[in-house]
Amino acid sequence: MFAKGLAPLDLITPARAWAAADAATDLAEPARTRRLMPPVQSVVMFLSVVGPFVGLLGAIALLWHRQGAASIGWPEIITMIVMYSLAGFGVTIGFHRLLTHRAFEAPRPMRLLLAILGSMAAQGMAIRWIATHRRHHQLSDRDGDPHSPHLHGEGLGAFLRGFWHAHVGWCFCRDEVDLARSIPDLLADRAMLLIDQLYFLWVGIGIFAPAIVLGLYFHSWRGFASGLVWGGLLRIFLMQHVTWSVNSVCHVWGKRPFRSADHSTNNFAVAIVSLGEGWHNNHHAFPTSARHGLKWWQFDSTYLVIKAMSWIGLASNLRMPSEAAMEAKLLPPTTN
Ligand SMILES: [Zn+2]
Ligand SMILES: [Zn+2]
Question: Which ligand is nearest to the CA of 281?
Fold first, then answer.
């Protein structure tokens, strides 16, 4: 049923073994975009996706028990914002703009720290996340794109299936053939391989650190549970769906100011909650730009943090499209 050499692979397979098995696959085999993963990997992905949903139910239960949303205190809200920002910027600054697209340079300890923080978002191991995203840019909205909403046929049913696939369904599909070919830079970095392999440790720290902090703050197990839910599982749930909305919503709804070989859009609402990633048409038009919100009014908190990092030497050589390059790709307003 599965390609020879890939069957035993799962999310805890070290990246080099995964890449070796990937390289050994028969490229003549038909595309397997929508075929399911090996069982072990499916179980891990199921837990990664459904576990945080349990956090949502936990949050509702906690609110219910405390009789109303007003009973959430600042400690929970601050914990959640801090953890959302740490893991979120780990993904947007680290996984995405730095490690996938090399939109700027950062000192090595900073690169590794960002990879660890991004892992706490529980969106999959760093190297596979990056490989998947590089493939998304190579084949955006064409055959071989791991999570396009546009490859499922015509009609409402096909649209809904495509949207589901782009949002979360793709997490349960096996990897694209030859996915690991695009990541030699990461496979050559021993520290990055170690961070990748310790994925579940970072996810665990991201869940239990806020639990311990609030447990100590409130001196109670109830505080521990509160930190686990708000700073851990619910935070992961929200961040996952925000990130996945960039794949689904931002390839369907929004404005397309720039010419790009796909259906990517700028979506204001997604941009705000996704820390600037929702300026997705800008990003597909200029993938190596450190800044996604290219207009002054396009709020891009990730870029603001990168800019602040550059002032204290934690980021350098920020790449940005020139005015002429932007002008050249601009579509007439009527096509929006
Ligand atoms: Zn995209
Ligand atoms: Zn990208």
Answer: 1
Give CA–CA dist 103/227, Å, rounded: 34
C-alpha 246 to ligand 1 mean position (Å)? 7
Q: CA of 60: how far to CAs of 53, 79, 122, in Å?
A: 11, 17, 21
Which amino acid is it at 62? L
pLDDT at 80 over 60: yes
Whether 25 maps to a domain, the answer reads no
C-alpha of residue 241 to centroid of ligand 2, in Å:
17
Q: Ligand 2 mean position to 109 CA, how many Å?
A: 23
What residues contact residue 19 under an 8 Å CB cut-off, 6+ apart? Answer: 180, 183, 187
Query: Does 31 fall in a domain?
Result: no
Q: Residue 307 sits in which domain range? A: 37-335
Question: For residues 62 and 223, what is the distance between their CA atoms, to the nearest angstrom?
Answer: 11
Residue 62 lies in a domain: yes
For 176-230, the DSSP string reads PTTGGGG-HHHHT-HHHHHHHHTHHHHHHHHHHHHHHHHHHHHTSHHHHHHHIII
Number of domains in the chain: 1
**Stated pTM of the model:** 0.88
For 176-225, write each residue's pLDDT tens digit: 667 778 888 998 898 999 999 899 899 999 999 999 999 999 999 888 98
Strands (DSSP E) along 245-315, which ranges? none
| SS3 state of residue 276 | coil
Q: How far apart are CA 30 and CA 53, in angstroms?
A: 34
Dihedral sign for Cα 217, 221, 222, 225, please. positive
